[in-house]
UniProtKB/TrEMBL annotation:
InterPro entries: DUF58, vWFA_dom_sf. This is DUF58 domain-containing protein. Residues 42-250 form the DUF58 domain. It comes from Hymenobacter gummosus. It holds the Pfam family DUF58. PANTHER family: BLL2464 PROTEIN, DUF58 DOMAIN-CONTAINING PROTEIN.
Length: 294
């Protein structure tokens, strides 16, 4: 599995998406199952407890045997990919891979898997500019649209305070899976991001929160004389090596509270690092979605 820096060096998002999807070696879900649907598939013998409404009475009259009509039930999803494009996503790890660049790779791989499963997939880029949307579709031209939008996405400013910006995300039809990829630095009580999570849960469907961080954010692995700058506010602080233990303590407390807050909304939560090969991260997500061990 290639790491993110190697994949980015290829400079071809459609190719990279296919490589990531193939490397993940798993699907979101079975695309079709046997059951009581609209499209006839086969007969099977009646068993006690079966729904009598599915009995083929004409066949029973001719053969004096009881059979049920089975059909393919369509279990395809509408997959909605939500990208946090606030300025903090410009932060890069030691290999020079920014969280935004990694997010592009991972979401492109997810989109490719969704289309392999014949799911409708759409993209929602949430930034200071508002919400840029590629509505979910399942036609052959959808992946190029998504790849173009991902490639054009830039991380600027802070997330909009107006929660109505995300209104297109709150309407849904049929089975939906909403995947939010963010560093969740904007997740505070009464923030727009917190309200969005609340509203998504109320709207129904499955919601998966992917918490993306760079390893150097966790270790504070910088030279002793480094100056750190908040990418969203511009505030600067001089790094004091003696403060590393206190920083680690506060960081772990923030990570716990962030996970508890997201899970408290009834959402699925996974933490990812930009140092992980995107295919490995995608496989982990897909296997956990299927209830399989990582």
């Amino acid at each position: 599995m290639l790491d993110a820096a190697a994949l980015l060096a290829l400079g071809n998002l459609p190719l990279v998406a296919r490589l990531i999807a193939d490397g993940a070696q798993a699907g979101l879900h079975p695309s079709r199952r046997r059951g009581a649907g609209l499209e006839f598939s086969q007969y099977r013998p009646y068993q006690p407890g079966d729904d009598l409404r599915r009995l083929d009475w004409r066949l029973a009259a001719r053969s004096d045997r009881y059979y049920l009509r089975e059909s393919d039930v369509d279990t395809r999803l509408t997959v909605r990919l939500v990208l946090d494009a606030s300025a903090s996503m410009n932060h890069a790890d030691a290999a020079g891979v920014s969280k935004l660049a990694y997010a592009r790779l991972l979401l492109a791989g997810l989109a490719h898997v969704a289309r392999q499963q014949s799911d409708a997939v759409g993209l929602y880029v949430l930034s200071a500019k508002g919400l840029q949307t590629v509505p979910p579709r399942e036609d052959t031209g959808q992946l190029p649209r998504l790849f173009h939008a991902l490639g054009a996405a830039t991380a600027t400013g802070t997330l909009p305070a107006d929660a109505t910006t995300a209104a297109p995300l709150l309407s849904r039809q049929g089975n939906t899976l909403t995947v939010i990829l963010s560093d969740f630095y904007d997740l505070e009580p009464q923030s727009a991001l917190e309200r969005l999570l609340t509203q998504l849960r109320a709207a129904g469907g499955d919601v998966l929160a992917l918490h993306l961080l760079a390893p150097n954010e966790l270790t504070l692995d910088y030279p002793a004389a480094a100056t750190l700058e908040d990418l969203e506010t511009g505030q600067r602080v001089q790094l004091d090596p003696a403060q590393r233990p206190a920083y680690q303590q506060q960081l772990q407390a923030w990570l716990r509270s962030t996970e508890q807050s997201i899970r408290g909304h009834g959402l699925d939560y996974h933490r990812l690092l930009t140092s992980e090969p995107p295919a490995a991260a995608l496989r982990l997500v897909l296997r956990r979605r299927q209830g399989l061990p990582a």
